[in-house]
């Protein structure tokens, strides 16, 4: 299994627009084969900071996810809404 955290920081005044864009990919991703978990969270203490917590059965499923139409749309529309490049953290579970 592969676990991934992706952190996003919205530009000032574009927090709601980024949230709506991020929410738009949740259900299509949950419908993908090979997906185990796909959750969108907002940091409590930081307005406009969002985190995807996602798990896939293997690296191949994660790679396939990155090439779906909804992920490509996200990558295309996101730059005008974010203050910095998303931080992607790939995790290996030990316990």
Automatic annotation (TrEMBL):
Domain ABM: 2-90
Keywords: Monooxygenase, Oxidoreductase
Keyword Oxidoreductase: yes
Statement: the UniProt record of this protein carries the keyword DNA-binding: no
GO MF: monooxygenase activity
Name this polypeptide is given: Antibiotic biosynthesis monooxygenase
Native species: Shewanella benthica
């Amino acid at each position: 299994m592969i676990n991934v955290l992706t952190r996003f920081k919205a530009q000032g005044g574009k927090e709601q627009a980024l949230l709506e864009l991020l929410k738009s990919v949740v259900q299509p991703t949950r419908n993908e084969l090979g997906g185990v978990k796909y959750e969108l969270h907002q940091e409590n203490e930081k307005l406009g900071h969002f985190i995807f917590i996602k798990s896939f059965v293997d690296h191949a499923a994660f790679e396939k996810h990155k090439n779906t139409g909804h992920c490509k749309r996200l990558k295309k529309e996101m730059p005008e809404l974010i203050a910095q490049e998303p931080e992607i953290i790939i995790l290996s579970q030990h316990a």
